[in-house]
DNA sequence: AACATCCTCAACCGCTCTCGT
DNA sequence: TACGAGAGCGGTTGAGGATGT
């Protein structure tokens, strides 16, 4: 076996010289996909060696997980997904792979990118640190309730509204056209923990947003690290067709909302 | 139309963790 | 127990497309 360089998927110096970097070609994708289809995942250095790809095992693994793997979803992150990401991040921090487990088809890389390009950006616009209590509270007590409000409003106004409402309120299964699944238990928890009567844009003078049940941060989180996966497995059911009917691209990161949040933050100081 | 700037996201890098010897 | 190699994770980068001037 070849000598391994520290922290890399081992290969000889000669091989390192001919390692390909950068975007993958269709041909490379095809080779990798065919190999893994036959031999299964894992042993990434062997994959690189046996396929003749001039890529590191690490690169092969990443390409498979983030792009070639079946069921990988790409495209707009839906409001439900955004809500889940915000909620799970508030519980687990930058544990992207753990968060990704709760968003089937989404990769840790995609969620990480979403966080950095959307959430961190908005924190900057609000002139506060993304990790500050102030910003986290704003997300939790203002942003998330309003996301939920939107989801529920959409649910009640769309043809699939009944199913969507059901998704948020209990754990009955429904199929969606894309076969996309998410974690209903977590969504249900978010909906039950978030105060959907938080101030709306039409009531931007209101500053008394709060949590249901007394406003304690600790009362918000109810899923423990150890059982979230079990919950999901037990209640495996589908996501609504929101993503498929034009709603999926919507989000709340609008100028209007930024102004509103700036006002909320100012009031809070 | 041309250029500048911004934004997104695929991919890389370095570190840590896990497992076998 | 110590060590080495593979695997996985989170942070960062940069190419290229989108948008603004």
Automatic annotation (TrEMBL):
Q: Fetch the InterPro entries from UniProt.
A: EOBI/EOBII-like_plant, Homeodomain-like_sf, Myb_dom, SANT/Myb
Specify the HTH myb-type domain's residue ranges.
Answer: 16-72, 73-123
Segments for region (Disordered) = 1-20
Ranked from the top, the taxonomy reads: Eukaryota, Viridiplantae, Streptophyta, Embryophyta, Tracheophyta
Q: Which GO terms describe its molecular function?
A: DNA-binding transcription factor activity; sequence-specific DNA binding
List residues traversing the bilayer.
none
Keywords, ordered alphabetically = DNA-binding, Nucleus, Repeat, Transcription, Transcription regulation
For this protein, the record's Pfam families field holds: Myb_DNA-binding
Main location, first listed in the record: nucleus
Gene Ontology cellular component annotations, sorted alphabetically: nucleus
Q: In which compartments does the protein localize?
A: Nucleus
Output compositional bias ranges, type Polar residues. 1-11
Protein name per UniProt:
MYb transcription factor 23
Which PANTHER family does this chain map to?
Answer: MYB TRANSCRIPTION FACTOR (PTHR45675:SF31), MYB TRANSCRIPTION FACTOR-RELATED-RELATED (PTHR45675)
The Myb-like domain, residue ranges: 16-68, 69-119
């Amino acid at each position: 076996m070849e000598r391994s360089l520290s922290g890399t998927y081992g290969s000889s110096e000669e091989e390192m010289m001919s390692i390909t970097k950068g975007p993958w070609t269709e041909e490379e994708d095809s080779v990798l996909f065919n190999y893994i289809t036959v031999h299964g995942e894992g042993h990434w250095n062997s994959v690189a060696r046996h396929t003749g790809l001039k890529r590191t095992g690490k690169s092969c693994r990443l390409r498979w997980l983030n792009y070639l793997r079946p069921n990988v979803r790409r495209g707009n992150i839906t409001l439900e997904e955004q809500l889940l990401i915000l909620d799970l991040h508030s519980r687990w921090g930058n544990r992207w792979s753990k968060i990704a487990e709760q968003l089937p088809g989404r990769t840790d890389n995609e969620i990480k990118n979403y966080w950095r390009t959307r959430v961190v950006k908005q924190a900057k616009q609000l002139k506060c640190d993304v990790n500050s209590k102030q910003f986290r509270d704003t997300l939790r007590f203002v942003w998330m309730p309003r996301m939920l409000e939107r989801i529920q409003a959409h649910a009640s106004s769309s043809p699939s509204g009944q199913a969507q409402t059901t998704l948020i309120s209990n754990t009955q299964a429904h199929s969606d056209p894309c076969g996309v699944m998410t974690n209903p238990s977590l969504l249900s928890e978010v909906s039950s923990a978030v105060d959907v009567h938080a101030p709306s844009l039409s009531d931007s003078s209101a500053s008394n947003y709060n949590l249901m049940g007394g406003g304690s941060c600790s009362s918000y989180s109810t899923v423990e690290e150890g059982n979230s996966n079990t919950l999901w497995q037990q209640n495996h059911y589908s996501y609504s067709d929101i993503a498929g009917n034009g709603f999926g691209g919507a989000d709340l990161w609008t100028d209007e909302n930024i102004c509103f949040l700036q006002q909320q933050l100012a009031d809070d100081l």
